Amino acid sequence: MKVFAIADLHLSLRDGVLSKPMDRFGAHWKDHHVRIAEDWDARVDAGDIVLLPGDLSWALKPHEVAEDLAWIHARPGRKVLLKGNHDFWMPSRRKLLDLLPPSIMLIQHDALLLDGVLLFGTRLWIIPELSFPIAWTDVDDRPPAPGSDLDAAEKKARDEKLLQRELGRLQLSIDAARKHREAGSVACCLAMTHFPPTDFSARKTAATELIAQLQPDGCVFGHLHQLASGPPSVTRDGIVYRLTSCDFLDFRLAEIAEL
Q1: What angle do CA 152, 157, 161 make, to 5 degrees?
Q2: pLDDT tens digits for 60-106?
Q3: How far is CA 176 from CA 15, 33, 217, in A?
Q4: Mapping DSSP to helix (H, G, I), strand (E, B) and coil, where does residue 73 land?
Q5: First-residue to last-residue Cα distance in the chain
Q6: CATH superfamily of 2-258
Q7: Whose CA, among 3, 73, 210, 212, lies 20 to 30 Å from 203?
Q8: What pLDDT shows up at residue 141?
Q9: Cβ(208)–Cβ(238) under 8 Å?
Q10: How confident is residue 152, by pLDDT bands cut at 50, 70 and 90?
């Protein structure tokens, strides 16, 4: 069994066609979902696990995401989804679990143990001390979101509040994962976040300190796009942190572990 990861799919399928083609962010995005599917279908078996660390769809409401979820479901493997900052389509946990096809599972304030693979994590938020060699960190062309007119001090306070909330959710997931570890056999432990918990200097942050509680084998994250440079992974506290944004991976799934 193998574990793969790929983040930031940014799907928008309507009748098999992307309603928001991503190549407006660069020619390398043209038909990106086709390239991902070709690689995914060729390399992933039914029993494998595919981690999806956020920003699955541009959809704003649950009924708009059906075709994107069907596309994911049609791919081989068992998929584990984490919320990203653009996943506005996600309803409450109970409604979301009813919405997801059977091959897609969710991590939200909890943890999963799948055939010896222990998975935990949360979306996280902006960690201000991190730095990346990039032109921009996200893809968006929508009207300004509520709160976008805040001044610098107000935005800093808001972001700090959101970060602290996400760190609390990360601790909830860690606590749930710890119970799984105590109760079952764990061959591999992996963390997932959407926002980066560290940067290419492997900087210590509140997020890396929490993740180190469980000493997972690795952590996958996304959110960042258009990197100017950077290694595929960095190691801190013995934990391998890997960026898995689909454009950073050249639209190929990253193989994270093999059991």
Answers
A1: 145
A2: 999 999 999 999 999 999 999 999 999 999 998 889 988 999 999 99
A3: 39, 33, 17
A4: helix
A5: 5
A6: Metallo-dependent phosphatases (3.60.21.10)
A7: 3
A8: 46
A9: no
A10: confident
Query: How far is residue 86's CA from residue 22's CA, in Å, rounded to a whole number?
Result: 14
Please give the backbone phi and psi of residue 17, each rounded to the nearest 5 degrees, phi first. Answer: -120, 140
Domain segments of the chain as ranges: 2-258
| CB environment 24-48: b (16+ within 10 A), e (fewer) | ebeeebeebbebbbebbeebbeeeb
Cα gap 133→131, rounded to integer Å:
7
What integer best gives the mean pLDDT of the chain? 91
Mean pLDDT of 155-172: 94
Mean pLDDT score, 172-181: 96
Q: Identify whether the C-beta of residue 198 lies closer than 8 Å to the C-beta of residue 130.
A: yes
The residue to which tokens 């055939």 are assigned: 115
Q: Is there a contact between 188 and 217 (Cβ–Cβ < 8 Å)?
A: yes
For residues 58 and 78, give the distance between their C-alpha atoms in angstroms, rounded to a whole number. 22
Average pLDDT over residues 120-148: 71
User: Do 73 and 46 form a contact (C-beta atoms < 8 A)?
Assistant: no
Region 46-71: mean pLDDT is: 96
- Sign of the torsion formed by the C-alpha atoms of 21, 24, 25 and 28: positive
Within 10 angstroms of residue 128's Cβ, the number of other Cβ atoms is 11
User: What mean pLDDT do residues 52-61 have?
Assistant: 96
Whether 83 contacts 54, CB under 8 Å? yes
Q: Do the Cβ atoms of 221 and 244 come closer than 8 Å?
A: yes
